[in-house]
Amino acid sequence: MPAELIQVTDHVWLWPSHPDPARVQAAVGIVVGDDSSLLVDAGQSPDLARKIKAAMDAEGLPSPAAIVYTHYHWDHTWGACAWDIPVIAHDLCGQFLAAEAAKPWSHDYLRAEMERDHLLVPSFQARARAIRNFQDFHIVLPEQTFVTTRTLDIGGATVELEHVGGRHSPDSTVVRVPAAGVIFLGDAYYPPPYHLRSPADAPDLDLVASLVSEDYDWYVESHDRPHRRAEVLDLLRAAT
Ligand SMILES: [Zn+2]
To answer: What domain range includes position 60?
Structure first.
């Protein structure tokens, strides 16, 4: 039994982020409906997507029918080509990914870009490690986009998407599962990505504070373990 898939609560499972930050492996959420599941992000690579698929089958979870991207960053989207299901995302996410898809991704391209801009090294080294073979890879653009909010009925549970933007990525979207009391934060409150970050940049705790609600007990971010509401409130108090 693959050990990595965990159940957060009713309706919600998670493939957690990789504990080694150098891997830049974002978590993948699974919202389980009656007959199908919805994925929150696609995983960083086709290999990871196949691993998650096998783990879902082993747990007897219903097959995913669609993916929601929390934002366009590679570690959330590059596994999508192995899922072969439609993607839903914010309109800006579609625009950013179209620009990303036009780049000539390959190991040679990654090397050349790292030579050109050393700030890209951590991200591009992680991409080179994640994608063994670029023949097996393409970026999947969203089939459906939205602008402010979107509600999805997955059978047995509704899922609410809300665009929150922010400095990490302007397309950041949070994903609420009201029946489960879970909110997926993606990377929404993180500072900008490493190659764009300045020393003054900090996590956007005001955004976190604005999202905390008594209706939601679980706060699932993409690069840390899930936190319960009480823990989030403690963290916010400690930071002010
Ligand atoms: Zn990100």
So the answer is: 6-102+140-239
Distance between Cα 33 and ligand 1 center (Å): 27
Taken in order 39, 6, 217, 179, the sign of the CA dihedral is positive
Number of Cβ atoms within 10 Å of the Cβ of 6:
13
| Run of H or E residues at 68 | strand 64-68
Contact 41, 186 (CB under 8 A): yes
Bigger pLDDT: 240 vs 101? 101
pLDDT score, position 104: 97
Residue 71 covered by a domain: yes
Distance (angstroms) between ligand 1 centre and the Cα of 118 equals: 19
**CATH number of domain containing 45:** 3.60.15.10
Q: What is the pLDDT of residues 200-214, one digit of tens each?
A: 888 999 999 999 999
Report yes or no on 187 lying in a domain. yes
Residues with Cβ within 5 Å of ion ligand 1?
Answer: 73, 187
Structural domain count of the chain: 1
**Residue 1: predicted pLDDT:** 39
